Amino acid sequence: MILNEAQILERLVDPDPERRIIITPLLKPEEQFGPTSVDLRLGTDFQVMRRTNITHLDLLKEPEELSRDVQRHMERVKVKPTEPFILHPGEFALASTLEFVKVPLDLAARLEGRSTWGRLGLQIHATAGFVDPGFRGALTFELSNVSNIPLPLYPGVRISQICFFLSSTTHLPYGKKRFTKYSGKTTTASSAFFKDPEYARIREALKQHSYR
Amino acid sequence: MQKTFLKFIIFELVERIVRFRLLLSECDDSLQKSAPVLNQSLRAEVHALEERLLSQKALLNKLFSEGNAGSGKQTAIGLEPLIAEIHAHLSQISRVLVHLKPLEVEPETLLFLKDILAPDLVKDAGEQSVFLAPEGEQNTLEHHLLPNVLLDTLSVLQKNNPLGWAGLARGFGCYLLANASSLEALKLDLLKSEKKKALAGLTQPLIDNLLLHAISLRLIGPAYYFHSLSEAVFNLDDAFLSFIEPALFYGLNHQNFTHKSLVIMHEACERSKNLPDVDSLPEDMLAQIYRVIEKLIPTKAAFQEKHMERAIQLQERLSQGVMLSSSPVYPVGEVADVLESTRELDDFSIYGPLSMLTEYPHTPREIVNAGWLHKIERGPVWLYTILNESHPEGFSKVSDLLGYQDHLLRKSIEVSEVHRVLLCGG
Questions:
Q1: What is the mean pLDDT of residues B362-384?
Q2: Cβ <8 Å between A68 and B29
Q3: B422 touches chain A (CB under 8 A)
Q4: Looking at the structure, do residues B266 and B175 belong to the same domain, yes or no?
Q5: DSSP 8-state secondary structure symbol assigned to residue B135
Q6: B-chain residues within 8 Å CB-CB of A138?
Q7: Could you say which of B97, B119, B138 is where a domain stops?
Q8: Which residues of B touch A100 (CB under 8 A)?
Q9: The domain containing residue B197 runs over which residues?
């Protein structure tokens, strides 16, 4: 069941901290609330991919080395509150919400774009719009400009919306899940794919069986 | 030496070691590319410092075994040389950190400066600039070396830590000392013979120092006192610490806090110079200083009691790991009551209770003060964690904790600024 505006509000002020949704800051709740969603804003830090100093990501390198490759591959950009981040046509960038969000254990959430921005060609996530129960931190945007004009994106603008779904209480909240990679992040975080255990297994298999 | 003091000083040391490692991680990519041997060598040094500290684990654990009561004199005697040795080495190797890319002052530092030094207040003083300096050398810079520029330095180890920025009004304080006629008159008056007789060691540099403390306390509030304590802790005895328990100052108003802080800082400063007898500052002298500083820095620009009340409330958010950039205008309980009582009405509109959820932004000063209150309460617990885990897991846990707290405080400062921008124009 998707929560409506009154149910979301009820959860935002729930006296039980375990059941309470946290979305902070709420600058103008009257403007941010829709029938089943709350608009979220763009933060100030971005990460863009650099293509000039790396040929590819070799997924089978050691994690420490891969972590450095990812750092080298992603350029951090921080804009001032009154300064736009320009997303050019065809460009991809990581960003995060201005808001800190906490989802209780009996709710899951989805991050979606706003049609106002969709009409301008802005996509706010490539594939990962789902938010696990127990998540806390800033949510990540995977921004793409699919239009043919550059889009100036100012911090604080409402580019997305979050909606909540009732679930049975999970015993595996995001923060306690094994191999969690982005729990509690309050800034834009780049991919930590190399922490997925499969790569270690493939590396080991290669060593043992000389597949390479 | 009080046990509370000993825990504080050891945690300060642990925190600096942890911060050193966090900074190395921050520049790991560029350093590994440009100077891999230096990278490995610095990491090995930090690891050795951690092990060196933990070599006295038995003595460190003794700190917790008997609670806070009683003197920690014996424990202190055993630990003092170790603390001095580790801090000295850490300070030396921090000279290398200053030159590493991409370590530079964070944009949030400038937002904090903008908050404490309002444009009206500093309009004649020039532009503020902050540079990173090696640990222990942050106060050695000539603050107005260049015309129209106020220079301030920050220990490189405090680059990411907003709590470490609470000393950044020093450059402006030095400017006031050199240019404010009311301070010039006050200094002359304080040095007059009758008052000078009452205080044997009251020299021009001591008065300057006292006035700098008073200016910073007026601008930044208790966070300045705690920050000064954390900087002085490796050189001084526990004079400062008689005033570290948060419970002691919750009951004080701002003037009393400033008053008491100045007395303690003055005593600590005198003791550090090995003066045989420490004279207390006369009440009328403190009142005189407070009056002049109050006129020089008007209430609008000062850290006020209402700010402190908000900081006390914000502390809990940090304990819960929640961002503290803003707070709702109405308590959530009140909004819940309104929602419940109106929900079943025919003309119910969600906009009534929704508008009550609107939040107002906190100032960077409130956020930093809340951070200090949290640290003072939680520091001993974090220290206990390190001591009760095997190495390096204990340090690693505290490193995660401090890293997260730094991020949360910096993001809170940054988001509060975006919030203020978006409030412009209604």
A1: 91
A2: yes
A3: yes
A4: yes
A5: T
A6: 411
A7: B97
A8: 322-323, 411
A9: 107-301
